[in-house]
Every structure is written in C-alpha cells, then in structure tokens.
Amino acid sequence: METPLPKAPQKRQVTAIIILLLLWEAGGASIKYSVLEERDSGSFVADLAKDLGLGIGELASRGARILSKGNKQHLRLEQKSGSLLLKEKLDREELCGDTDPCILHFQVLLKNPVQFIQGELQLLDVNDHAPEFLENEILLKIPESSHPGTAFPLKIAEDLDVGSNTVQNYTISTNSHFHLFTRNHSDGRKYPEMVLDKALDREDQPELRLTLTALDGGSPPRTGTSQVLILVLDINDNAPEFAQPLYEVQVSENSPIGSLVITVSARDLDAGTHGELSYSFFQSSNQVVQAFEINTVTGEIRLRKMLDFEEIQSYRMEIEASDGGGLTGKCTVAIEVMDVNDNAPELTMSLLISDVPENTPDTVVAIFGISDPDSGDNGKMMCSIQADLPFLLKLTVENFYTLVTEGALDRESRAEYNITITVADMGSPRLKTQHNITVLVSDVNDNAPAFTQTSYTLWVRENNSPALHIGSVSATDRDAGANAQLTYSLLPPQDPHLPLASLVSINADNGHLFALRSLDYEALQAFEFGVGATDRGSPALSSQARVRVLVLDANDNSPFVLYPLQNGSAPCTELVPRAAEAGYLVTKVVAVDGDSGQNAWLSYQLLKATEPGLFGVWPHNGEVRTARLLSERDAPKHRLLVQVRDNGEPPRSASVTLHVLLVDGFSQPYLPLPEAAAEQARADPLTVYLVVALASVSSLFLLSVLLFVAVRLCRRSRAASLGGCSVPEGPFPGHLVDVSGTGTLSQSYQYEVCLRAGSGTSEFKFLKPIVPIFAGEGAGGDTEENSNFRNHFEFN
C-alpha cells in the first residue's frame, strides 16, 4: 500500500529529503582517514579515541560502534585501545571500480548519549594490476598508397588500477615504417596512435608484424603486450564515412537482452569489394564489449546483457567501419543508461534494544540506516511506522534514523509492541521495504498489590482442630516477575490484649489463614486483625486488608437443670391434690444451655412415668401439668423422668426425676415418704446403738437431760408446723426468668420452697404455686385453708 507524504509536523512519518533534524549532537566535522588497499585484516587505521578527544575508557562506556552503509562492515573498533582497525582485506577495484578517489563512508555511533560522527576512509590504489589488451592480435589493413605521416589509431589496453598506476605510455617494436605516439582521449584515457614514416610497397612486403606494449606508471611499471599485424592492401580511393560523427542514445536499464540500442550507418563511394563495409568496435573497453554487440553487416548495436544503472550510468564507444580495401571510418556512440525504479529501499539495523523499561520517556529503541541505489526520485525515500503507536522516528544524520519512545510506556496497559518500519521510495511505481521489530516493555515496580476485598469475614466453628485452614486472603499485583511476587503477613493487632500470634497464622506465599488452637465460642465470639501483602520489587510496595473472624457456636454444652436441683440428695416431692382438674400445674422444670442460637433452644419431653397419660410436659416451657382429672383409683405415688433437649446438631440432653404424691388435702405439710423412712432407718442403726449404750452408762443423768430435750423439741416442732415453709418475697432472679417460654422460670409464678426430704429431720420439700390474693375475695378463707392444710399433714 502506498504511504502518503507527511502533511503536518505531528505525523509519525519523516522523509529522507527533508532537512536533517539533528536532535542530538551529531558531530559537526567529519573525520577522514586513508589506507592502502590489500592490507591485511586487523591493520591499524587510526587512533579513533585520540582523534575524537575521548579517553580510552570513554569509548567503551559510551558504547561506541562503527556503522557502514549496507550490511558490509569494513572497519572495526577495538574498545580497549580505541584503535580503528581493518576488519578485512580491501580491494579498491572491487569496491570502487574505476572511480577515483575511492571513498568509503562510515559513521561512529556513541550510544550514551546518542551522538553520530561522520567518517570517510579513502582507499588508496596500489599497482596490483598490469595493463591488458582485449585482443592478443590487432589486425590493421593499410593501402600501399598511404602517404607518410598518415596516422593509424590502435586499440587501447585496460588497467584496473587508477591514477598513476593505470596505463601511462605505449611503445612499439623497432621498425623502418612506423613510429608511435601516445594520445589522450576526451575521457582521460591514453591510446596508441601509429604514424607512417615510409611508404609501403605491397609487392616488396605484403605484411608486417609488430609488438605493441602498454606501460603503467607504477614503480616498477607493469606492462601488457599485443601483436599488431599490418596487411598492405592494393589501392582503395575512398574511405568509409559515417552519417554522423556522434550518436547519442538513451537505454532503460531494464531493457531485455537482445534489445536494439541504435544502428550506425556509413557509406563508401567505391565499388565492388572496396565499397563493402564491415562494422566493429574500436578501442572499446571490456565493459563495452561485455554489455553490447554489433552486427558487422548492418551496424545494429544490441544488448548482450541487462544493464544496471547502479553499476554503470553511461557507455562511450568507438565504432569502426572498414571497406574491403582496408580503409576505415570511425564514429562515436554515447549511450546513457536510464534509471528504472528496480531497487527497493534497504534498511540496515545498527542498534536494536528490544527490552525497554516502562515509565522512561524518550528512550532510544533502535538506530538504523536506509539506502536506495536508484537515482533521482527513484532514490528518494521516506520512512514511517504505524500511526497508533507511542513511538517516533527521528532523522539524526544522513539517512540514519532513531526510533524513540514518544512518552512513558505502561507495561500494565500494553507489554509488547510490534512495530513495522516501512521505507518507500518516490519512484514510479513506488517500491518499499518493511522491517518488523518487537519491543517488549520491561516491568518497573509502579503498582502496589491490591486485595480482592478490602475486608474479609471468616467463620470458624468452635472446638476446631489446631492448624485448621479457616480461609484465605488474596491480592494481585499488575506488575510482573519479582515485582508481582507477593508476601503475606499479619499486621500487629489494634487491640494490644488480643493474643493474635497464638490464634491465627498466615502462609506467606499464598495467603492461607490457619487457626493455631481450638477456639471456644463461650470465651471468644469474634476477633479482627489486619493482613498485609508486600511485593518483592525495589522499592517494595504493599497494601492492607481487614479480616474479621466469627466463631460459630458448636453444640458442646448440654442443658443444665436449674430446678429441681439434682445434687445427689433425695429428690423433691411434689404434692398434687386428687381434686385437681386437667391442666393443673404440678411444677416447672427450669433449665439453661451455655450455647447460643438454635443450640440453646430447649424442648422438654416426658420420657417415663409411673402411670402414662396422667401427667404431661409442655415442650416449650417445661411445665408439668395433669393430663386428665385425678380419681381415687390413681396410685398415690408417681415417678416422672423428664428430658431436656437442645436443638443442636447433634442434640444434647439432660434428664431430671420428679416425684409426685397425690393427697386428699393439705392438712399435714410434712409427710415422709416410705422410701425416705426406710433409707433413714438403714442409715441410723449405729447411732441408735450408741445412744442406748450411753443411756446404760449414765441413765440418771441422761434421763434428766432427755426430759429437758424432749420439752425443747416439742416446742420446736410446734413452731415448725406454723412456719416451716417460707414464701419468697419476690420472683426468682432475672437470670432464671424466661419471658419467651423456652423453659426457664416465668415471672408469673412464685414458689414456696420447703425443706428437702432425707435431711435428718424427716422433712420434705414442698413446692406449690402462690395464687395472688385479691382484696374482698375470701382472703381469710384461703388463709384458713392453708393453715388447715399444714396442720393436717404434720407428723414425726
């Protein structure tokens, strides 16, 4: 695709025909050196460091390099000594042909800071080639009628050397008929001309053979020879004459082989064989003979090979027309080779930095040179890159460009750039060359780690095993390499009393959190701490996040029965009148659970009863009530086993045993159970024996004492029957009150707590609800009934 010329300074294209844009110091004066050709590789050329005014170490520190046109490097720089040396043996004739002087251009590139210095190396010629005639024998036909003084130009010798080392003189072997002059062509070449001194006589000597010698100007001179055969011809009156002495023609370099270049034409007034003409090249160079051929009959000049404008831009040749009588005529043909845009531009990369650090603007990425051997517009070039890249092309010195970053690159936005450098000429059609380079943006630690969440909430069930993985924190870093490798750590807790080091630990590589010991919900419900993520860049960057750990309750506490108490003593007996109706409140089981949530939700269940169906337990509040009306046929004594169960997984439970005694009335408050009496009888036989023994020893004394004690006991028994049970003045403490009906005491109940059975005094504990007494509703009757109830059940 054709690349348009830039229209504004902000465009990313620059052309080779604009004024040099010297943004770096380019070294105003060029350095020039000369060296003889054919010197060995490694030969000393110059002390470059000294000539540039730099120290020896400064060349190495500034990254000095030698650049040459194209990919062929003729010189090399020895960094340590600062010497400029030949990289290979140089042949002047191969590099420059017959161009004199032979100049090889090079540049000295100093990378840090960027500086270009132009250099020229003149390759001096040595006389390493001898003159050489294209033909070993030169045929010359001279009529015997030729007058003395007639000149006969001869074919020249070729010498690849230049200057004084090329052909400087010609000589001819000694003879009596001719002498030789050395003449100069208009292009500077020297050619031999033989002059007739004495008239020829065909009958006396029909032919002569002479030796022509060419000498160059070397020391010592080199020579080349050719034989000159002279045939003496009979009289021929008219010599051939060309229609014009100079023919000029233009030929395109891409013309195919065999193409007609031009046709030369001569005429001869003689008749017969003396008027028959033959065309040939005369005193033509080897380049002419190789590139062209001439038809000896028609005078057509055609191509023998494809012409190359970049090698030879023009040819000049002498054409000779000879008749049958030996007379000749000459003309000159000048051929100009027309350039065709047949060479695409070339790009030579001198410096490429494929890894560029981010955040560094105006960084040199590449230095390269461009060239096009075509001429005119065909050799004018423009260089460009894609328009959407953060890079600029800057023309530094002649046909040398520097590719730099336009601004600071950001690796996190784009880590790699594929840059296509396009070099196009201005010919028609346009030819272009593309060179692709890949630039990697190296990372700089300019991004701090970022946690995926600013805060984390973790849940851990209590009673966990030590070293349990309880969760993870995660952070990312947009950088790369070591700059993105993170190390996790625990931050000092804000609460100085929190033993964080003994609670949790963190894996520094992956952020996994572990509980170091078993957690107890009842001791610690939640705790909070900070975590940090730090990269391994220089300097190191870090970020923080908060972690909150919530300890989940495990069902590790069984329900605890507050009432009735179960401490190994005899159970409490509940008295229920036989006249009680269904739903009569016998008692209430009160329990608590140290767990929380659903693990503390309690339910009550009657597991076992003496007479199933007589009593029931409300599952939500633990109230024990009669399930139906009592009758005389029901057994007086009942044993109830009540289970208290929580709602945990797995559920935990506790049980309590209740004794219920059915009574006809409440006249006797103390009614011993048969089981309690039997137990008491079994527990006191030793005491009885001791009392009897003591009575035997001191009967009189003990008799008086026993009488005194009996009197006192009777008084105490009377007082106990009146006030043995006490009514609390208020409800149970608040921590035993459950207004939600989950099984603890309700504020709507008050209880009388009596002495425990089996306490050594044959007393038992009595519990009954206290019914509120309202004024004017038989308060006196209730009091009397209560008093009768107590008196009715009293016994020793």
From TrEMBL:
GO cellular component: plasma membrane
Topological type in the membrane: Single-pass membrane protein
Record keywords, A-Z: Calcium, Cell adhesion, Glycoprotein, Membrane, Repeat, Transmembrane, Transmembrane helix
Entry superkingdom: Eukaryota
Transmembrane region(s): 688-711
MF terms (GO), sorted A to Z: calcium ion binding
SUPFAM superfamilies reported in the protein's UniProt record: Cadherin-like (SSF49313)
Places the protein is found: Membrane
InterPro entries for the chain: Cadherin-like_dom, Cadherin-like_sf, Cadherin_C, Cadherin_CS, Cadherin_N, Protocadherin/Cadherin-CA
Domain Cadherin: 28-133, 134-242, 243-347, 348-451, 452-561, 576-671
PROSITE patterns, per the entry: CADHERIN_1, CADHERIN_2
SMART domains: CA
GO biological process: homophilic cell adhesion via plasma membrane adhesion molecules
Name the UniProt record assigns to this protein: Cadherin domain-containing protein
Originating species: Equus asinus asinus
